[in-house]
Design goal:
The chain is α/β, with parallel strands linked by helices. It has a 6-stranded mixed sheet, with helices on both faces. Strands 4-6-8-9 form a 4-stranded mixed sheet. It is globular, with a radius of gyration of 19 Å. The structure holds 2-acetamido-2-deoxy-beta-D-glucopyranose. 2-acetamido-2-deoxy-beta-D-glucopyranose (NAG) binds next to loops. The site of 2-acetamido-2-deoxy-beta-D-glucopyranose has 3 residues, from loops.
């Protein structure tokens, strides 16, 4: 099957007949393009599955809007300490929705700040793990890179093939990929459209772990549970500090880290964590 399949995706037919929409947290009712539930033994991992199977999870406007809504719901849910975003075994997301873009004018793109809303994913205060099976191409690769941690299934493929469509990555691909894998590989991928497999992605630092396809999602949820067991408050600070490394000089970043480090001493969770350590028991964090 030609990899260009993502360019000929079906447009926006509502997938209302979808039998898998078993659960919805969204106040407005069922989601159309995603499945949403809470996973983990303590239901502390927000779980979002992109679900436009016929379109290999092409990221249409509607899907991205629902993804933002689901993130808002999980951010407001005090029980949720981490979020997992995944797709299907075949595709995390094979691209943006090309038919939605095909006839857009520059004026329209500029006026609506096209794709700017996608950034919501990278602005989540709670840690977000991308569990990538199959294709993560174009917008799909960019979406994965907006997450904090990427786990890949053995058959995963990452790529930024926009150049083959006469455009360039527009949701952070040229920036986040370069920071993740370095200049030469990022240039090669962005200029040729060539994909890399899970092993190369691991080796280049794009992903942190590779798992067999059928274990990927449960391993990502396990990672989410591990994160959710820590203080949500302090995890948010840790995430903010790591992210600052991409925005600041080393001196500024170290200064920022130090301020946040000092701030943790104002929390009950630091007292609890260190007291539990001294008393040789497991900490019970209250997120305060
Ligand atoms: C875009 O424009 C072309 C040429 O006018 C037309 O054939 C095509 O159907 C349009 N595509 C969409 C998705 O509207």
């Amino acid at each position: 099957r030609k990899l260009h399949s993502f360019t000929v995706m079906q447009p926006l037919k509502p997938e209302k007949d979808n039998p898998y929409c078993w659960f919805s947290l969204h106040a407005g009712g069922q989601y159309e393009y995603i499945l949403v539930e809470k996973r983990g033994e303590k239901s502390d991992v927000g779980f979002i599955q992109l679900n436009r199977p016929k379109a290999l999870n092409a990221l249409c406007e509607g899907l991205m809007r629902e993804l933002r809504q689901a993130l808002d719901v999980f951010e407001a849910d005090g029980e949720v300490g981490a979020i997992v975003i995944t797709g299907s075994d075949r595709a995390f997301a094979a691209g943006a929705d090309i038919k939605e873009m095909q006839n857009k004018t520059f004026q329209e793109c500029y006026r609506t700040d096209f794709l700017a809303h996608w950034n919501r994913v990278s602005q989540s205060k709670k840690p977000v793990i991308a569990a990538v099976n199959g294709f993560a191409l174009g917008g799909g690769c960019e979406l994965a890179m907006m997450c904090d941690i990427i786990y890949a299934g053995e058959k995963a493929q990452f790529g930024q093939p926009e150049i083959l469509l006469g455009t360039i990555p527009g949701a952070g691909g040229t920036q986040r990929l370069t920071r993740a894998v370095g200049k030469s590989l990022a240039m090669e991928m962005v200029l040729t459209g060539d994909r890399i497999n899970a092993q190369d992605a691991k080796q280049s630092g794009l992903v942190s772990k590779v798992y067999p396809v059928d274990q990927l999602v449960s391993e990502a949820v396990k990672c989410g549970e591990k994160i959710a067991a820590n203080s949500k408050l302090v995890s948010a600070m840790a995430k903010e500090a790591v992210n600052a490394a991409f925005e600041m000089t080393l001196a500024e970043g170290n200064h920022f880290e130090k301020r946040l480090f000092h701030a943790t001493f104002a929390t009950g969770d630091q007292k609890e964590g260190m007291t539990a350590f001294v008393e040789k028991r497991k900490a019970s964090f209250q997120d305060s």
